[in-house]
Amino acid sequence: PMGTCPLARMPLSDNFTGLLRPWARPEVLTCTSWGAPIIWDGIFDPAVAQQQARQKNLTIGLTVFAVGRYLEKYLARFLETAEQHFMVGLRVVYYVFTERPSAVPRVALGQGRQLRVERVDRERRWQDVSMERMRRLHVALSGRLGREANFVFCMDVDQHFSGAFGPEALAESVAQLHAWHYHWPQRLLPFERDARSAAALPFDQGDFYYHAAVFGGSVAALRRLTAHCAQAIRQDRARGVEARWHDESHLNKFFWLQKPAKVLSPEFCWSSEIGMRAEIHRPRLLWATKEYALVRY
Ligand code: UDP
Ligand code: MN
């Protein structure tokens, strides 16, 4: 079975999963057509992942934006549950981006874990807050964050951790399968198809629809990703167009051009609103209920 997933056979110390056991989950797709593993519960050994990551003495960055009402509504729970579940046992540095640094909640941090706050401007439209993240992340990755972290995850704040999100998720570049779309036929996936947008994919193209609420990778890979997306967003703005799902559309274009080295199953970022699914064993992140009337302006 390993022969079906070449990237899972990288030198064992580089993939943070050890030997994968795709046969433990015969009911789901565990490998992409380009050979990247799709990480489902049960196909990796968390202890091996932990051991590999600790041997490398890694520092993991976790970036999150909390601008406007998202700060009071979501940030405390996001950080408190990250303390319980995100990369436990590794060095972690949180980067919180907000326009109100003084309002960031004081969360008790475990040993080897730090929190830094970066000030950002409050954009006028929520779509712009979301898209501006790519430019701001690129700046951060080129500065202190890029110097102190080996790998970084970039996440939405409107979710909380509900299970161990560990080093099995690490790789050179990591994309998250979108919980609502992972079982949809390709032609129905909500990729941008309007050729005027830099995010457009040709009509019959597309691998998976990825969720912008979770993406990650090495600092170098994420600098390329954020540079691509920030530039594409600028180009669209200059042309007076906006991609259907904003930064997520551009992220999907990037991962179509540069295939991710690892793909996370929807167990890593699940929505309770979808209900029970036999293949979803243990969700690691759960979306908050969408209360757009409260948080968007
Ligand atoms: N965000 C924010 N303030 C805003 C809009 C967005 O802090 O006014 C950040 C926040 O981290 C949020 C992310 O941008 O989780 C993406 O926006 P949202 O979650 O509303 O988009 P959706 O998940 O609904 O596509
Ligand atoms: Mn969100």
Structure description:
- By secondary structure, the chain is of the alpha/beta class.
- It has one domain (57-295): Alpha-Beta Complex (Spore Coat Polysaccharide Biosynthesis Protein SpsA, Chain A), CATH 3.90.550.10.
- It contains eight helices and ten strands.
- It has helices at residues 12-15, 46-55, 70-85, 126-141, 144-148, 219-239, 247-257, 292-295; strands at 38-39, 59-65, 91-98, 113-119, 151-155, 159-161, 173-177, 210-218, 262-264, 285-287.
- The strands form two sheets. The protein has an eight-stranded mixed sheet. A two-stranded antiparallel sheet has the order 6-10.
- Helix 3 links the parallel strand 2 and strand 3 (91-98).
- The model has no long low-confidence stretch (mean pLDDT 94).
- The chain binds uridine-5'-diphosphate and manganese (II) ion.
- Manganese (II) ion is lined by residues 156, 158, 213.
Quick one: how many beta strands?
10
CATH class: Alpha Beta
Please write the string of helix (H) and strand (E) elements: HEHEHEEHHEEEEHHEEH
What number of domains?
1
Briefly characterize the structure.
This protein has 8 helices and 10 strands.
Descriptive keywords:
alpha/beta; two-stranded antiparallel ribbon; binds manganese (II) ion
Question: What topology emerges from the helices and strands here?
Answer:
Elements (H helix, E strand, L loop, with lengths): L11 H4 L22 E2 L6 H10 L3 E7 L4 H16 L5 E8 L14 E7 L6 H16 L2 H5 L2 E5 L3 E3 L11 E5 L32 E9 H21 L7 H11 L4 E3 L20 E3 L4 H4 L2
Parallel strand pairs: 1-9, 2-3, 2-5, 3-4, 7-9
Antiparallel strand pairs: 5-8, 6-10, 7-8
Helix pairs in contact: 4-6, 6-7
The chain binds uridine-5'-diphosphate and manganese (II) ion.
The site of manganese (II) ion has 3 residues, from loops.
